[in-house]
Design a protein that fits this description.
Elements: H1 23-37, E1 46-48, E2 58-62, E3 68-79, E4 83-90, E5 93-103, E6 105-111, E7 117-123, H2 124-137, H3 142-149, E8 153-159, E9 165-170
Antiparallel strand pairs: 1-2, 2-3, 3-6, 4-5, 5-8, 6-7, 8-9
Length: 172
């Protein structure tokens, strides 16, 4: 399993709902978590099915230092009015970062790995990740938001002497 890299059209797929979470889905989830964990600079915190070439609605997201969670048929039912600018990247668009306005909380629904329907309010980083990954499931990339929002985009152009990344703004 590999991460699909833009501009591959697999990233633009409109996904279809999962009818029922199967043992095969659970196997794919384990593979996606393992793959996401291989990204350390920058750290992988989420991976959508489209990013591994699949067309069903699910993603994995890091929920704390050690653990990931799977979200099947995720939906956002309500968003906060307040938004915050996040610096966002994507495993499918390596070496690019951008400023994206995201809602600070989101009421969501999804099916868990046990086929149970869950409703909850996501806040902070988890709300941010959820919004980013749901966008993937609708064929939308963070670059699309940067263009829509007239945000700023940056490219990693190298490393400094201390090993930190050096960025250059990309004109839009």
């Amino acid at each position: 399993m590999e991460v699909v890299i833009a501009p591959d059209q697999k990233l633009r797929v409109q996904t279809k709902p999962v009818k029922k979470v199967t043992p095969n889905h659970l196997k794919i989830i384990k593979q996606m978590i393992h793959l996401t964990n291989t990204f350390t600079d920058p750290e992988g915190v989420g991976l959508a099915s489209t990013q591994v070439g699949l067309d069903e609605q699910f993603f994995v997201a890091k929920i704390d230092e050690q653990n990931f969670k799977a979200f099947f048929n995720p939906k956002i039912t309500k968003l906060s009015k307040k938004v915050k600018v996040f610096t966002e990247g994507c495993l499918s668009i390596p070496n690019y970062w951008g400023e994206v306005h995201r809602h600070i909380w989101a009421d969501v629904e999804y099916i868990n790995e046990k086929n149970q329907k869950i409703k909850e309010r996501m806040r902070g980083l988890m709300a941010h990740i959820f919004q980013h990954e749901v966008d993937h499931l609708h064929g939308k990339l963070f670059m699309d938001l940067i263009l829509e929002q007239k945000g700023r985009l940056f490219k990693v152009i190298g490393k400094d002497r201390a090993g930190g990344e050096v960025f250059e703004e990309v004109p839009l």
